[in-house]
Amino acid sequence: MNEYKPEGSLIKTAKNYEYISSKAGLERALEKQAIIEAPVVLCDHNFDLHVELGGGIKGLIPREEVEYSPDGDGVKDIAILTRVGKSVCFKVIGFKSTSRGDSIAILSRRSAQRECVDNYLNTLLPGDIIPAKVTHLESFGAFVDIGCGRISLLSIDCISVSRISHPSARLAVGELIYTAVKCIDEKGRIFVSGRELLGTWEENAAMFSEGQTVRGIVRSVESYGIFVELTPNLAGLAEYRDGIYAGQTAAVYIKSIIPDKMKIKLILIDTDEASGTPTPLTYFIDPEKHRHIDSWRYSPISSSKIIETIF
């Protein structure tokens, strides 16, 4: 995989510790222009970020070095404040001494991000499979770090085929996931998708057999029936019943599996309270071996309804 990982990926590595634990290490990082990480402990009144380093050395990211902006727009205050308490990446760009003789390492997150953009993000193409880290969730989707704190949008309809009411049903802040580059707009902004990595209808349906009773999650209740998710990319329909609501876990009997109609008919056996914890995602593509896909067809060949993605 690429060397420009989401922030937080380097913090516990031996090489990173070697760089940040002493002034000599930080000087080597400066010489090699290495990208390293450490946690932000304070944002002062100037909106400069104070970083926790080793060996009694203080680190400072000046406001103008907090974030790289290709279009030249200034960094917003909230983007600086929300770095406090989190690990950030940066390059060492120099040192200065205080009046008391203390050494302060001057750091630049902007420089690290610019290198990431120039050497990695600008080389990506639609269909490339990349790691990402969930940074925050909104009703319309998840924002994910795709390298050195650079943020991309994973819209709610691209998280999975099975519909969800909110990204928190599928993802958690801080979670490491894999995504495919969906598109890149005229401003160079990258948008990603996840459902193409979670298996086709047939791949998911092959995990189940008629006559089984399995666990599912109620995703929606309609007048004509209840949609129960069996996997993130597979849902079936059970008959309507009063008192059922979205989010409940359910025991369902698989009555029939019909590939040409992409339908799974279920009988609802019982329900329980929602677990509240997203089910870990299962990838049907090994991101370490397959780093690009040109297209993906969800629907079976026998189905007249075509659901596919052309990158």
Task: Explain what this protein looks like in three dimensions.
The chain has a 5-stranded mixed beta barrel. The chain is built from 5 helices and 17 strands. The chain has 3 domains: 14-119, OB fold (Dihydrolipoamide Acetyltransferase, E2P) (Beta Barrel), CATH 2.40.50.140; 125-198 and 283-310, Beta Barrel (OB fold (Dihydrolipoamide Acetyltransferase, E2P)), CATH 2.40.50; 202-272, Beta Barrel (OB fold (Dihydrolipoamide Acetyltransferase, E2P)). The model has no long low-confidence stretch (mean pLDDT 95). The longest helix is centred in the middle third of the chain and has 11 residues, at 109-119. The protein has 311 residues and is mainly β.
Set out the fold topology.
Layout: H1 14-20, H2 23-32, E1 36-43, E2 49-52, E3 58-61, H3 77-81, E4 87-97, E5 103-108, H4 109-119, E6 129-138, E7 141-145, E8 151-155, E9 176-184, E10 190-193, H5 201-205, E11 213-222, E12 225-231, E13 234-238, E14 249-258, E15 263-272, E16 295-297, E17 308-310
Parallel strand pairs: 3-5, 8-10, 13-15
Antiparallel strand pairs: 1-2, 1-4, 2-3, 4-5, 6-7, 6-9, 7-8, 9-10, 11-12, 11-14, 12-13, 14-15, 16-17
Instruction: Provide a count of the helices.
Output: 5
Strand order of the largest sheet: 1-2-3-5-4
Distance between the termini: 20 Å
- The CATH homologous superfamily of the largest domain is named Nucleic acid-binding proteins
Helical amount: 10-25%
Query: Number of folding domains?
Result: 3
What portion of the residues fall into strands of 2 or more residues?
A: 35-45%
| Unreliably modeled segments | none
